[in-house]
Amino acid sequence: MNTINWVTWTSFCGKVVFAMENKNTSIRIKVWIEGETGETLFGAGQLNILEAIEKQGSISAAAKSMGMGYRSMWGKLKKIEQRIGKPLLISKKGGASGGRSVLTPEAKFMVERFRQLTKQLNDVSEKIYHNIYL
Which domains does the chain have, with CATH numbers? Predict the structure, then answer.
């Protein structure tokens, strides 16, 4: 377990200030996009679902890979689509070989933009964290 040793010193104003002695720490943030009424439009959970579908090729396989039921994942997808007002998947009905789902261009755009957003926010927050604490 990583422990943090805090060093205390008194500043010129007489206030007690703390700094971390362990420089091998980092900050983690959670990012999500909310609608005007506070509902989550897109976040890490939605990203994980779309990435799993993209990788696995179907809702069923994606749900299984994430330890979810098909109906649960399908319901989450429908909720996202309803909130953003756009379809996320192009699905082909199954037959002997099973069905297939691919992300719509809009879904691919959302996934890529959210990846960019979280990377940039993580990079900036890490710099701010180091400036303040280390």
Answer: 30-133 (1.10.10.10)
